[in-house]
Every structure is written in structure tokens, then in C-alpha cells.
Write a structure and sequence with these properties.
Elements: H1 2-32, H2 36-40, H3 54-61, H4 65-101, H5 107-116, H6 122-136, H7 142-166, H8 170-178, H9 183-191, H10 196-212, H11 215-220, H12 228-233, H13 243-263, H14 265-278
Length: 279
């Protein structure tokens, strides 16, 4: 009886917390399918008999500036996030392996320096990056924005993968060396194929972090490489605000990250826990 009561309390608390966290998403969805007049009323009126998906149809198939902008920005976000993920993952793999398996002067101090970079507020480095990219002609470019995103993604990748590589059995590496493998062959043929959870977690984290960035995209892009968060913000104009379209575009923007987190949740948690425990 006591155990049943505990289970009831546990699930009640869990569902309550879930509802609290999901309530903004639910409200955003409800607002996106309501007529604009209902949402701007005081208090807002919710009438499901007049619910419409016209905002979503307009965003996907409309010819207005905002609709075209958000469709283009989705493509831009996919390109930038993919580039940032590829760049950060490649550099992070080599850096993490060096910190975990190689011995060189000031190794621990250098790792602490790299790890501490994630504590820097983005606003501290965005202006220096703007000045640097202006000289290198990287403003409003996919590669420039992906490179900027790597500044806050890479330290987390190094932290996760270093912890994962450190617990990799050194006996397997010694056996590979006896068979004539060099360090690159050991890394790519042995360690990485056995590091699926860690690699999956850093790839998904990198993509989501790049996809959600607003500040770097705002400062470092104009029109060519403008991403989804900026396109959503365009609905909050100086003279007119379209709340329902802003809600619809916001939901469209977060759907890819939610799906990635849902499908790869097991690998993300496993990779983060292993890296965190060792680090």
C-alpha cells in the first residue's frame, strides 16, 4: 500500500513537471492556429471551432517576404549547422584524443584553458569575431558563421570525448601497435567505431547548438546566411507584430531539434554521462 502511494505521488509529480515544461509549447501551438484577433484580445480568446492551419500553409507555400525568408533560412540553418557540426567534430576528435592519450608539456593546463572557454559569454567574443571576419571577408557566409559557432561548441565536444577516450582500454591500443597500426589508424579503425554513443551525443549537441544560435547569426550575417532564429524574429516588427505567425514559425524552427533529441536521447545521455563522470 505504501509503495502504491509512493508511485502515485511520483507519477503525479512527474506529470505535473512535464506539463509545466510543455505548457509554453502547447500555448504556442494553440496560438498559432487561432485567428490573430483572438490572440491580441485582452484577455486572449481561445476558440477551437475557428482553428486554422493557414499560418503553416502560408509559411510553407506563401509568396510573402516573411514566408520566403523563413524557407530560405531553414536551408541556411541546415547548411550552417552541418558545417559547424563537421568542423567541430573533426577538430574535437583529434584534440580529445591528444588530451586523453598523448603526453606533452602543459597538457592539463591547456585542457583547462580549452574547457574554460565555454564559460565565456558569447557577447564577449562576438565583436572581436566580427572585426576578424570583416578583414577575412567571412561576414554573411556559411563557413564564417559555422566557424563562429565552433567557438562555443568545440570546448564541450573536447570535454565529452576526452572522458570517453580515457576509459578506452589501453590493452587494445597496445595490441594494435604490435600489429603495426599508427595513432591515426588506431583512432579511426578501433577507437571511433567503438565510440558510437559519444560521437552521436556530440554530433547531435553540435547541430542543435548551431541551429539555435541567435547572437552570432544576428551580428555576423545580413541576408545570404540568415538562419531560422532571425527569420522568426522578423515577425516581431517595429510597426506590426504577427503573433500567430511568429508562434507558427517558432514551432517550425524547434521541430528539428525536438525530433533529434527524441530519436537519439539514449545515445545523448549515455555519451554525456560517460564524459562527465570521467572528466
Amino acid at each position: 500500500m505504501e509503495r502504491a502511494i509512493k508511485n502515485i505521488l511520483f507519477y503525479t509529480l512527474a506529470w505535473t513537471i512535464l506539463f509545466v515544461y510543455l505548457s509554453p509549447v502547447l500555448w504556442t501551438f494553440v496560438s498559432s492556429i487561432q485567428p490573430e484577433i483572438n490572440i491580441i484580445s485582452v484577455p486572449p480568446k481561445i476558440d477551437f471551432s475557428n482553428a486554422t492551419f493557414a499560418n503553416y500553409i502560408e509559411l510553407f507555400f506563401g509568396k510573402s517576404y516573411e514566408s520566403v525568408s523563413i524557407r530560405n533560412s531553414i536551408v541556411n540553418s541546415v547548411i550552417v549547422a552541418s558545417l559547424a557540426t563537421l568542423l567541430s567534430s573533426l577538430v574535437g576528435i583529434f584534440s580529445s584524443y591528444a588530451f586523453a592519450k598523448m603526453h606533452f608539456p602543459l597538457r592539463n593546463n591547456l585542457f583547462l584553458f580549452v574547457f574554460s572557454l565555454q564559460m565565456l559569454p558569447a557577447v564577449v567574443i562576438v565583436i572581436p569575431l566580427f572585426l576578424l571576419f570583416r578583414e577575412l571577408n567571412l561576414l554573411d557566409s556559411y563557413f564564417g558563421l559555422a566557424l563562429a559557432h565552433s567557438t562555443f561548441i568545440l570546448p564541450v565536444i573536447v570535454w565529452i570525448l576526452k572522458g570517453f577516450f580515457e576509459v578506452f582500454p589501453f590493452e587494445i591500443e597496445d595490441a594494435a601497435k604490435i600489429d603495426g597500426c599508427n595513432r591515426l589508424q588506431i583512432l579511426f579503425k578501433i577507437i571511433l567505431p567503438l565510440s558510437g554513443p559519444a560521437l552521436t551525443s556530440v554530433i547531435i549537441f553540435s547541430f542543435i547548438a548551431s541551429w539555435n544560435d541567435f547572437l552570432f547569426a544576428l551580428v555576423l550575417t545580413k541576408t545570404q546566411a540568415r538562419t531560422v532564429p532571425l527569420a522568426v524574429a522578423e515577425y516581431m516588427g517595429f510597426y506590426q507584430i504577427s503573433y500567430t505567425k511568429a508562434c507558427a514559425s517558432g514551432l517550425i524552427a524547434v521541430i528539428p531539434t525536438i525530433l533529434l533529441a527524441m530519436f537519439f536521447e539514449k545515445y545523448i545521455i549515455k555519451g554525456l554521462i560517460r564524459g562527465a563522470l570521467k572528466a
